[in-house]
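Form 12-C: Joint structure prediction
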Amino acid sequence: MIPRFGKYVIKRGIILFLTVIVATYITVLIANMGGYVDEIIKSDLYLSISQSIRQNPAYKALNETQIKELINAIYTNELKKIGFDKPFIYRSISYLRDALSLSLGRALFISSDSGSKNVRIIILERLPNTVFLFTTTQLLLFFIGLFTGLFLARRYGSFLDKLSVLFAPLSSMPGWFYGIFLILIFASFLRLLPYGGMVDVPPPSNRFDYALSVLKHMILPVMSWLIAYTPINVYVRRTFFLMFSSEDYVELAKAKGLPESLIQRRYILRPTLPPIITDFSLTLIGSWMGAIITETVFNWPGIGSLFYQVSVMFDSPVLIGLVVIYAYLLALTVFALEFVYAILDPRIKAGGT
Amino acid sequence: MSNIKQSLRTLFAYRSALGGLIIILILVGISAYTIFAIPYDEATKLWRAGELYWLNNPRNAMPSWVNLFSFKKMPETIILDTKKPQLGASKALIPVSDKITRIKIEFSFNYEYDDFPSELNLFFNSNFNVSAPQLTIHWVKPNGGSIVLKSFLLSKGEDRYYISNDDRLARELKSTISRKINETIGYDIPITILLFALEDSSILDPSTARVMKGNYKLWIDGIAFEANMNLDVKLVVYGKVYSWAGTDHLRRDLGIALLWGTPIALSFGVIASLSIALIQMFIGAVSAWFGGKIDTIIQRITEVFMVLPFIPILIMISTFYKFNIWILLVVIIVLSMFGGSVKNYRAIFLQIKEFPYIEASRAYGASNFRILTHYLIPKVLPTIIPSIVLSVADFVFLEAALAILGLGDPLAPTWGKIINDAHSNGALYKGLYYWVLEPSLMLAVTSLSFAMLGFALDKIFNPKLREM
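Section 2 - Result
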């Protein structure tokens, strides 16, 4: 049993890693627009070299052709130094190698709040903001969905249950859309909460006040997502539990006269846990890449707004960095889920396909 | 036929489905009307015509129907033009001698609104040969008080006088009224208030200043130094409400974008959702049917696409190429072709593949293509209709989101574009709620109608849910 499972896990691991490599390489190609970004860098380089030489008094005596020769010589030298003398396709491979080994290099255009151009610092500066906001949101969504779903499944056909079915279409509108309304009501009309951002400007020096200020800024984004996605979450979970509670073994448990709570825990929740956990973990990881539009609407300084900034500016190193980190995170999660499945559902261990 | 009737009857048993369908039909009706009433070329032209074209419209005006819900009557725009014969605009060019023409133009209008106009402009159109006519513009309030607004020499052709932007006049009027009520006006008072307000102490604060209701006159007298000259003048008293939709910061009629947003949103959403679902289903079917190497390759491609961040790539591509909305649609379809749903479809087809009727078709020698298109896909097609309907809203919002990020089609007047304009001009800070609410309402109604229909269809096509 175990060796078979081990072999399967190794195979999955290799496939996942290959997926990460291919996805990263595609990103390298897209983020550089097939070499277009290089052209920008080259022309920038040429411009800065020619400017520095023309402004240098030491070269004043040279005539136009000599200056041009000098510029060209320095330019080709510089190109060789940053590896730009080879065609793009060769360089894309070295970009890929750097990306996969997480040596993310330096950003082309943007810099972190502390002024660094190091991609890793830029990303790490934004990541906690997004992780904090969206983990909170996703956890709230998950538990509200789970418990309300269980509750409603038990009271199938009740008024509340019908209400949950009625409200489900509200989730056809995305979180940022509700965000606009919330800003309109709570920031613009009632002037209770801030329009956006993460802390007051200037940030409070006191730790406690700072935390309070962040919480105050979090209310609207979290609320917008709760309003947008709770109805569908509750509906999906409820339907899911309902389907499972009509299984024969549940009926049998009921017939045996087992207490309601035990049936829920052991006969409904346990077998439905693997898909629920998969769903939650993938959503959670996905949410760490930030919600581009929500973060832009609320001006939240997270990964989502960083994604937006770098995509518009073609800051390919940062973009590649973001995608690589996401790909690794996703692959690791999927890999870890294989083990979680094996623990939760004994049938899977024997499977292997 | 009876089959269709039967399914329609089942569908209408769900009130939400009926409601959703009715709203969708209304939206389709609006689209059809829009396409015929304002051809697309004209709409984009109007939308990008710039401020000069819309000069008769007030800036940032609310829709007119707000007056129905408020005791305070907001002003409509009053346009008086000597070119068009109408009450309240009169023009007389009296030749005094062969060298001199006397000009007398008079506008009069009733102003019974509770709020001040937003702007006040005069537009001149004249032809003369050599010497410019000398004009003096007078303003007469309902209480009889008369003021000279400006005396000047007209320039040839088109000329205009933005009364509400005349700083010199503002200072003058401010000190005159201050003297009259024996108190100093402490704030930067706009000319529209100075010209239209009751001249008592209520004017000291912008929130208490009240309109002097009644008949206003603006008259121009002047002398032209030649005989055969012509002069036409247009007075525009800009209101604070406009039409059924209001205007934006460039004085454009928001109605155009609200109307045109409908067919664009509908077709974008339906085409994207339908074609993506069909392509994904086809890929899923191919993957399940052929199995082996083809299956492996398709599955790996799907996994790669699941890792790639969809929106950033879409943003990059659309920033780079700046396409119009239909190419954007194709890009979205291509990027979502290998989405995660391919895996779901494959799982479904793997089950169907083992059904006896497939085996039978294989036995009589049906080709792979025939089995795919005639036996496998038709079997699954009905069950994916609900998800196609449900995901229409997603793509409508995707288009809106791209427009809000400033990445949509720069030409097309869409709902997202209005929200984008509103956002970048601080509509929510300035309290111009209608600007955001109107397109948002359209988006909300559209997505809700498809969602209501979709959920009902889901119950009909997936009987397991119907029991629930």
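Section 3 - Comments
Chain B has a mean pLDDT of 88. The two ends of chain B are 29 Å apart (CA to CA).
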